[in-house]
């Protein structure tokens, strides 16, 4: 401006600079005005009141239940012929895969063979075998008491889980009026953990498996919500009496313009295989969005994410089409396509951050009201040495 000889140019630049300063000053004023108009504040209060009993989900951690497939005398579920047929397909893949697959498929087989043999993936790869490995309520929970009263199978909802096969949720919406163990839920589990001689007697197939923890995975969550067993669950070891004391915290968020929550989001109604409406929360909404992203990219579903109703007939990405493999002479081509789906799922799972999926943002606002549970865990050896006989008489008949 200083070097310009034209007064018109100088005047235009001066007007432009002044206008810019005025506009900037206006927006700064608006921002400051809004900040003081909608002041944020946080109120914390401690109320001595009755509370709703939370939902409790328990899953069995199998130390190596897959090794029990070698004893197929009387399957608990499913047909023995179907189980042996599934094992035959697995044996074909293990024995003939490295010989028959072409160069394109060998790297994929090398990457995913170990995962294919992992017990955690049996549910989607070989559902019949998974049905054999699941535990019935009666063989898993041998005693149940709630508020010092006996409870039974009707008080639990059984759900399949991509990592733990089947889990049981105690979702009893009842008011708790006093604290203490007699006002809560008391469960006794039968785990049937492997003994040392069984661990030493494993076959070559078993030795390729990855050992898992032994015990129970427990998640305590808000009623009618889907628990995140992997991230929110705690492990309870076998051979102990474990006491979990809880403190409930209730949070209320404010709507716009103070916050970003949405009071209209109350329930989620489009989740497959759910008997009741699920209470809305951002984490579940995000997982449904991520499931749609995986299905759109790979044409299959991820076993660990909730399935929307409109996708409930889709196959899981790790599903093995055993009929096609057994009947198709060119079985390697069929298996290669399945390996490609697995590879696609694995790659796109890396594209799932908290807020964005791929190129677009999931429509998942925060909940305006939610509860959390802080836990204090204590343990003691159980049963006590002087009570072993009473334990056997009560629970092992």
Automatic annotation (TrEMBL):
One Pfam family it belongs to: ASC
What are the recorded GO MF terms, alphabetically?
Answer: ligand-gated sodium channel activity
- Topological relation to the membrane, as annotated: Multi-pass membrane protein
Coiled coil location: none
Per the annotation, which location comes first and is thus the protein's main one?
membrane
Where's it found, cell-wise?
Answer: Membrane
Query: What protein name applies here?
Result: Sodium channel protein Nach
Q: Which organism is it from?
A: Owenia fusiformis (Polychaete worm)
């Amino acid at each position: 401006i200083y070097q310009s000889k034209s007064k018109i140019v100088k005047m235009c630049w001066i007007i432009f600079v002044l206008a810019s300063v005025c506009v900037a000053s206006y927006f700064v004023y608006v921002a400051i005005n809004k900040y003081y108009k909608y002041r944020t504040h946080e109120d914390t209060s401690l109320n001595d009141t009755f509370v709703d009993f939370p939902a409790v989900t328990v899953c069995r951690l199998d130390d190596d239940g897959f090794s029990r497939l070698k004893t197929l005398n009387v399957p608990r579920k499913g047909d023995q012929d179907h189980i042996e047929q599934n094992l035959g397909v697995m044996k074909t893949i293990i024995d003939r895969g490295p010989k028959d697959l072409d160069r394109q498929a060998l790297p994929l087989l090398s990457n995913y063979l170990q995962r294919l043999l992992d017990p955690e993936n049996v549910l989607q790869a070989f559902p019949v075998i998974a049905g054999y490995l699941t535990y019935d309520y009666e063989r898993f929970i041998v005693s149940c008491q709630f508020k010092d009263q006996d409870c039974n199978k009707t008080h639990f909802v059984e759900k399949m889980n991509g990592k733990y096969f089947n889990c049981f949720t105690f979702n009893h919406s009842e008011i708790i009026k006093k604290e203490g163990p007699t006002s809560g839920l008391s469960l006794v589990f039968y785990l049937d953990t492997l003994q040392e001689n069984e661990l030493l007697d494993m076959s070559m197939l078993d030795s390729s498996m990855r050992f898992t923890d032994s015990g129970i995975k427990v998640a305590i969550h808000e009623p009618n919500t889907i628990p995140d067993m992997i991230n929110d669950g705690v492990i309870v070891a076998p051979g102990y009496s474990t006491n979990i004391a809880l403190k409930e915290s209730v949070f209320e968020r404010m709507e716009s313009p103070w916050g970003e929550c949405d009071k209209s989001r109350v329930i989620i109604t489009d989740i497959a295989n759910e008997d009741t409406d699920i209470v809305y929360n951002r984490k579940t909404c995000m997982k449904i969005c991520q499931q749609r992203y995986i299905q759109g990219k790979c044409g299959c579903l991820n076993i660990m994410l909730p399935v929307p109703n409109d996708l409930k007939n889709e196959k899981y990405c790790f599903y093995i089409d055993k009929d096609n493999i057994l009947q198709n002479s060119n079985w390697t081509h069929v298996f290669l396509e399945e390996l490609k789906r697995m590879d696609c799922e694995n790659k796109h799972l890396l594209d799932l951050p908290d807020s964005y999926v791929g190129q677009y943002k999931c429509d998942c606002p925060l909940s305006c009201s939610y509860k959390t549970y802080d836990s204090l865990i204590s343990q003691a050896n159980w049963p006590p040495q002087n009570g072993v006989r009473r334990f056997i008489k009560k629970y092992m008949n």
